[in-house]
Amino acid sequence: MRDPAQLNLLAALASALAGMGSALAAAFMIRLQRRWSSADALLRIAEVFESAAFRKYKSIIYRLDRNAFSTWNEEEVASVNAWCAHLDIVSVLIQSRQISKVAFLNLYGDVTLRTIYQIAPYCNHQLALRGKQFLLPLRLLAGDLVRTWKRRAHKKRYPLQIGFPDQPRLRVSPDLFDSDDAVLAFRADGAIR
User: Fold this and answer.
1) Angle formed by the axes of helices 74-95 and 101-130, to 10°?
2) Among 81, 83, 85, which residue's Cα sits nearest to residue 49?
3) Who wins on pLDDT, 40 or 85?
4) CB 98 within 8 A of CB 137
5) Do 61 and 118 meet the contact criterion of CB atoms below 8 Å apart?
6) Coil, strand, or helix at residue 192?
7) What is d(CA 177, CA 183) in angstroms, rounded to the nearest whole number?
8) Which of 15, 85, 106, 147 has CA atoms 20 to 30 A from the CA of 158?
9) Which residues partner with 167 through β-bridges?
């Protein structure tokens, strides 16, 4: 027979191993749950972007004269506002790491970047009226998204230039996003301007 001290040590060791196994299983389940949550969030975002209403908004935004926002009609302003509200929510999900920034860039980066370019002058005007909190999540994400775009483009993992379907001569690039006054004013880049 074994010594009671040895039996207690073996029981404590077995208990510690079982506890460690439970902790590892719990960590694995939490990680799996996060992945499911992230995939679910990305699917829900895709449902909105692919809806008939948002396809219409995108089409309207692509055709806007970005600098003539004071002459936009009611439908154009409503389209931009609805689009911005959705992008603001998406931005919060990306910043809180509920959605991968690279996955989002691969799926909807081109659409997001085109629309940011188009709406920047209007949003800057609204920012002056509504205050620094206006579209803050999107403004914070914009610079980060451009930096990710630039890195991935240099690795040949993302196009360096993005065109507009209805305006073949208009192309956006990270350099344009780093030099366009309206886009630079829109981007918060980690500090509230």
Assistant:
1) 130
2) 83
3) 85
4) no
5) yes
6) coil
7) 6
8) 85
9) 164
What whole-number distance in Å separates Cα of residue 67 and Cα of residue 57?
18
Whole-angstrom distance between the N-terminal and C-terminal Cα of the chain?
76
Q: What per-residue confidence (pLDDT) applies to 3?
A: 79
Query: How high is the pLDDT of residue 183?
Result: 96
Instruction: Using the predicted structure, report yes or no on whether residue 139 has a pLDDT greater than 80.
Output: yes
Query: According to the model, what pLDDT value does residue 193 have?
Result: 46
Written as one letter, the residue type at 110 is: D
Degrees, nearest 5: CA angle 61-64-68: 135
Closest to 112 (Cα-Cα) out of 167, 45, 65: 45
154 token code pair: 């240099």
112 contacts: CB under 8 Å, gap ≥ 6: 87, 90, 104, 145
Reduced to 3 states (helix: H, G, I; strand: E, B; else coil), residue 168 is strand
DSSP 169: E
pTM of full prediction above 0.70:
yes
Query: Which whole number is the average pLDDT over 30-44?
Result: 68
pLDDT of residue 25: 61
Name residue 193's amino acid: R
Instruction: Give one DSSP letter per residue of 120-153, joined into a string.
Output: HHHHHHHHHHH-TTTTHHHHHHHHHHHHHHHHHH
Question: What are the residue ranges spanned by the domains of the chain?
Answer: 1-50, 57-186
pLDDT averaged over every residue in the chain: 87
Q: How far apart are CA 134 and CA 157, in angstroms?
A: 32
